[in-house]
Specification:
76 residues, mainly alpha, 3 helices, 46% helix, 0% strand, elongated
Length: 76
């Protein structure tokens, strides 16, 4: 039996794992970005990873998943 390639494994992976991979790839762009642009990216990545961990949407365009708890709102 042939071993699955990375693409085939990713297709069979949990959607939240794929979301985490997609979110973390945003950090790759920081290599070319000025340092003063890093903080907003880190904040967004942190927020999106927390949403995935909480079972909420990884992508604001998808809306909440059925049965997913609402992320806690923080007033700063």
């Amino acid at each position: 039996m042939e071993q699955e390639t990375g693409d085939a494994v990713r297709q069979a992976a949990d959607p939240s794992e794929l979301a985490v991979d997609r979110i973390l790839r945003r950090l790759d762009a920081l290599d070319e970005a000025p340092v003063d642009e890093h903080a907003p990216v880190y904040d967004a990545v942190h927020r999106e990873l927390a949403e995935v961990l909480a079972g909420g949407p990884a992508d604001p365009a998808t809306g909440p998943r059925p049965g997913a708890p609402s992320p806690a709102r923080r007033d700063s």
